[in-house]
Amino acid sequence: MSLDQVPVESVPLDQACPPGVSLAGLPEAERRRTLVGETARFTSAFLRWMEGRACGGLTYARLRLLQALHCGGPAIMRDLGVQLGVSPRNMTAMVDALEDAQLVVRRPHPTDRRATLVELSPSGAREAEQALEPRLDAMAELFEGFSAAEQQAFADALARLGRAIQDRQDPC
């Protein structure tokens, strides 16, 4: 069984990032399948890495939610989910966790009784002001070994992949 056939979850982290994959000489279909496998391995390793940096239960997704509330003020949960690219179910779980940590509070919307506003609590505002930027900066250090041109190429490739995903939303 090749590494491409091993389920991503069972690949040890030190084997998940081979020193590079050569696509040279591969037929187009095989190159694409190899890229899918490498993307899946990277995604799994990256998510494990990000979760390993959760400080005090503040995962990257929760930090982003605090950041959105800190920068934009109170917001409807549905709108926050759209802004952060989070499903309603996951948005509820994130808000529940931050509410349990007393970092956010839910309030009824003043004009729409179907909507719930989420806002930073006083301790959430302090957390956002004191810890948000250093935590995000520490995560961003992952890219410090990349030149500006490499960072731009990576951002461009991710944007292109995102557009390709949006263009292919139809079910299998």
Description of the molecule:
The protein has 172 residues and is mostly helical. The chain has helices at residues 13-16, 28-51, 60-72, 77-84, 88-100, 122-140, 148-167, and strands spanning 75-76, 104-108, 116-120. The protein has two domains: 1-17 and 25-52, no CATH class; 60-139, Winged helix-like DNA-binding domain superfamily/Winged helix DNA-binding domain (Arc Repressor Mutant, subunit A, Orthogonal Bundle), CATH 1.10.10.10. Helices cover 59% and strands 7% of the residues. A hairpin with a 7-residue loop joins strand 2 (104-108) and strand 3 (116-120). The two termini are 26 Å apart.
CATH topology of the largest domain: Arc Repressor Mutant, subunit A
Helix content, binned percent: 55-70%
Please give the alpha-carbon distance between the first and last residues. Answer: 26 Å
Helix and strand element order: HHHEHHEEHH
Proper CATH architecture of the largest domain: Orthogonal Bundle
Number of helical runs? 7
Compute the CA-based radius of gyration: 20 Å
Q: How much of the sequence is in beta strands?
A: 5-15%
Q: What is the number of strand segments? A: 3
CATH class of the largest domain: Mainly Alpha
| Averaged pLDDT | 83
Q: What does the largest sheet look like?
A: 3 strands, antiparallel
CATH superfamily of the largest domain: Winged helix-like DNA-binding domain superfamily/Winged helix DNA-binding domain
Number of domains: 2
Name the strands of the widest sheet in spatial order.
Answer: 1-3-2
Q: Which spans of ≥5 residues are poorly predicted at pLDDT below 50?
A: 1-17
Shape: globular
Structural class category: mainly alpha
